[in-house]
Amino acid sequence: MADFCHLKTAIQGLISCSANVNPSACSDNVSTPLDDDVVCSTFFYSEFVKSTSDDITQSSAEILPTSAILGCGTDRTPDNYCKRKYSSPAHDHSSPDHRNASSSFSQCNKPCPVVGQVFPSYELVVQSYYDFASAMGFSVRLGSTKNVVDKGSGQKILVMKMLLCSEQGSPSLILPPTNGNRRKNGVSRCGCLASIKFKRIDRFDNWVTDTVIFDHNHSFTSPSKIRYLPINMSISHTSKLLFSSLAEVNVPISQQAAYFSNQLGGVQNMGCMKMDINNMVRDDCIDLKNYDVDLIVEKFEMNKSENEQFFYDLVKDDEGRLKRLFWADPTMIENYKLFGDSVTFDTIYKTNVYSMVFGMFCGVNHHRKTTIFGGAFV
């Protein structure tokens, strides 16, 4: 009888202990969503909102984080939020992928997303998950979005956002037709279920973490290669200005990368590679091609405002593209008046983009030196 009383007392103690357990400290992979009565604000049901919109869009584009001033690194700040391991009873935890994922979660030094955590802005709530993914070793894709229509302004207001693991989904087996050779890319999508969902709780841009799923079915990137993840590879605005300034003085890209690496204390702190700088220069050239004629006209008009003797003339075709261009500054005009008895038109330079010939009107001065009378694109 005494043993039965001791057993009864022990069972009651276990029940009371289990009732006091914090649900957020459990080891499930899927965090339970918040109750709508708790997290939903009157914003979603107020008179200012016309109706909940079904405007849910999907995007498979990689998104990049807001980088630091001179690069995009991962600041290693110790934190105790991620000192526990996550496991899922629905999967085989003896597999290498799950062992790797479990150990990575236990070694993560960034705050883990917690259901119910409130953020004062959309940028902060997204950046927090970027930092977590960067420290863990996986990249992020845009998921579903939900908008509501404001009755007052008629504009759509973002009220829900999902971020997915970059390996979510399955690869497409039907490839679109192409004219040239198709580039062979590795298949990275493996049906990963990891995701996070944020909801807007009021009209003041406050957001709350609604659902978190940590169920990765793949191994994470090793710490030595985390900096190569797309989420960590970006060139900040300040860095672009630096590269543009170096390019204006004809500094080679290899020397630009070496200088940038030296300033940041190593290649691992750059947040980009030499190939990224090459791609940036390529994109700048493509953008410049669309309005380079306007830049020439703007430059010549500025020269003409500074000196009325500056002369230029251009001809465009029906589509607004440059067809012919001639210019001469005051010095060229004065040299032509003095030494214009003999003029040669040198057309040895030819551009590859527009298939236009660059020619120079040249002569010889009284010192038997070559003098330029004008320039032209024909």
TrEMBL record:
Where the record annotates domain FAR1, the positions are 129-220
Q: Which Pfam families match?
A: FAR1
Q: Which InterPro entries match?
A: FAR1_DNA_bnd_dom
Which protein is depicted?
FAR1 domain-containing protein
